[in-house]
Amino acid sequence: MSERILLVDDEPAVLDGYRRILHKEFALHTAVGAGEALEAIAVTRDDPFAVIVSDLRMPEMDGVQFLSRVRVVSPDTVRIALTGQADIHTAVSAVNEGSLFRFLTKPCEKEVLAKALTAGIVQYRLVVAEKELLEKTLHGSITVLTEVLSLVNPAAFSRAIRIRRYVQHVARKLQLEAAWRFDVAAMMSQLGCVTLDTETLEAIYAGQRLSPEEQLRVDAHPGVAAKLLSNIPRLEPVARMIAQQDSILASGLTKKNEPADAVTLGAQILKVALSYDQLRNSRNSHQESLSRLRLRPEQFDRTVVDTLEDLEMDDHRVEVKSCRISDLECDMILQEDVRTNNGLLVVAKGQTISYPLLIRLRNFWQRKAIAAEIVVHIPRGTAEEPAKEQGKTAATAGAQ
Q1: Are 172 and 381 in contact (CB under 8 A)?
Q2: What is the pLDDT of residues 89-127, one digit of tens each?
Q3: Is the pTM of this model over 0.85?
Q4: What is the CATH number of the domain that holds 190?
Q5: Domain end among 129, 164, 182
Q6: Could you tell me how far CA 342 lies from the centroid of its own chain?
Q7: Of all helices (H) and strands (E), which one includes residue 195?
Q8: Is 18 exposed, middle or buried (0-12, 13-18, 19+ CB in 10 A)?
Q9: Which among 150, 327, 357, 360 is least surrounded, fewest beta carbons within 10 Å?
């Protein structure tokens, strides 16, 4: 079997014995003690061990502590404990703290150990396959929802793009784990705006006063998005972040700036990002916007606000030019709103051109409903040739 197995024991002679009886059937690696094993795991983080078998009685760090660490640093790895001390207390601790797949006792016959390793590899394959399927399903679902939002409500999508940029910056500065959850929450934070008309959204983003009826509909949009996302497995925490994005909440950060509650923290990050974006749209400068947020510590966590201090330094260098619709390519960024001849918003400023959007723009242009040229950003360092080929394909499809 090609999957790698790590055997851990504080006695080199025991490890040599494992190698002699199992090396023909399995891809074995050994480590003397927990410290050496953790170093091996760190080095192979991008290609984790499928199974780790550890003795429980080791000096400095025993097997229970070691396997508990493995559970954190390599959660997909299947964990098996092997010990000569078959007492109930040790077994219970190992199972509860290390989430063990098997608990074997010494001396362990070759056939028993080989069967356990084979079963562990099968379990690892199942875990990895399920994880890959879920990731692809989630990515596909988010991609579809994002494209629908960009076509149905370009103003909301444009804001979501900006919010995502702010949230990604905050996540990097705070070095948050599982940053994809905050990224998805940002992209989907405006999904509920599909229930709002374009005029209402433009009024919101311009800071105009709304009627009581309009304000009620606007206040409801986070709940709409949360309800839609709650139907997708593994996105329940993201849905709760979005539902609470306008709430007055604790920051979700401990005194050491470590996340205490991912949902609460995600909601607070969204709240800061959305308010910062509103202030910038109301023609406040970067520093003025941050100053206003800092004046309201009961609403906005200071640590989260401070992470935006160097936000503008994150801007990628871009080339700006006027481009004909027929020459547009994927990954270009719109520098101006695209509207029909009668003023209907087709695509909002700041949106990255995707394949479906390119088709949409070409269709409007062919009907002579929009201008033949628009101003775009061209990010430097992007792969231009693939984009050109995709643009040519889109042009051909749009002309058919």
Answers
A1: no
A2: 666 666 666 578 888 888 888 999 999 999 999 999 999
A3: no
A4: 1.10.3210.10
A5: 129
A6: 39
A7: none
A8: buried
A9: 327
